[in-house]
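cache lookup: miss for this entity combination. No prior model stored, computing from scratch. Input as submitted by user K.M.:
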Amino acid sequence: MTAKPGRRTQEERRATTRAKLLEAAAACLLERGYAATTVSEVQERAGVARGTLLHHFPTKVELMVAATEHVVDQRVEQFRLAAAEIPADEDRLDALVDLAWRDLSSPVFFTAMELWMAARTDAELRSAVLVLEERLFQRMRESYASVLDDQAGDLAVPLEFTIDVLTGLSITAMLSGKLGPRQPLLDKWKQALRLLVEGQS
Amino acid sequence: MTAKPGRRTQEERRATTRAKLLEAAAACLLERGYAATTVSEVQERAGVARGTLLHHFPTKVELMVAATEHVVDQRVEQFRLAAAEIPADEDRLDALVDLAWRDLSSPVFFTAMELWMAARTDAELRSAVLVLEERLFQRMRESYASVLDDQAGDLAVPLEFTIDVLTGLSITAMLSGKLGPRQPLLDKWKQALRLLVEGQS
DNA sequence: CTAGAAACAGTCCAAGCGTACGGTATCTCT
DNA sequence: AGAGATACCGTACGCTTGGACTGTTTCTAG
């Protein structure tokens, strides 16, 4: 029964601080990259004291693992929201492509990429990321399937191709920042996808 | 005119040492990742003295830039060799997919990815990588076009899709190390690619 | 009111990067 | 061919920063 403002329960205090830390870590990963992300900077960005971070995450890897989980949850959540906003009268395949592109070109995606790349060579981080990847892919596929009305999984292969194409597109356009002449490719892929779906049935 | 073995010109000495350093840097990037790559370890792996590395590359970024160039050249070279080995009687589209996959799942590709990701948040490295990326893509497209006998560029779009699909495939399978259920996708993409090429003409 | 949890502040140790300097091999000019 | 100039190699050092630790204070819960 803590109604007084500024009077929060322990769990609330812990949660808000933890959230601030994870948000700061994610922002740092996005702006500075994994290599330049230090616990000191995360601590400063979060506006907490030195020992506070240690209290929540004894080691840097534990912070990174938690940050990964946070980022994954963000991606899943953004994805669900975007999927829910799709108008019912829109073409399902076009909607799928737009939905996937919104995810795969978003800042959260690049933040996740930083962690994924780091996990490749860091055993501890890697084992944690692997199970989170499983969860992420699972949830994503569910949302995709709901957009397509494809419970049977008949469109699994074209879906996989769509994800991979857009992933590749996002990566290859990462540095220049702009899609450049690849922008029309999104529309072209919509056509191609339709062709593939018709062709396989 | 230095014919005596063990008697090398300055330029030769410089070149071999430089090559050893770049090779060591690339190996370190692949095994440890960018974040854990230190100049000390590169120096140890190369088997040279501390100041030697510094004489060639005064700063770490300069070393990384040179390493990027080295890795890019390796990719281009491996690519040309692989392209030359393709038997004349093989289906051109199938050959294209295999060729692209050999590149995009190779160790050199992941080494390059480390540098690409690092370049995203490092201004100095980024500007260097951007011009190298231009060169890389240019050369790659030339080789691809030669495999396809497509000087006119009619197959540019399906080619782009192929590269992006396989890039995405490689990335999403990066952590688990094995393609898993995605292995058959390579064959499925060959079919899809054929469909796309026929469909657009 | 007291026990325990959370947040704060200051510090230690190790490692990384960059600098300085002496020694040695190679090139070049006469 | 010899001597000076140039370029390269190797070692030792200092500055800075990152990551992990300990003690103290504030706040919540019973």
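stored under new cache key. Chain B touches chain A through 43 residues (CB under 8 Å).
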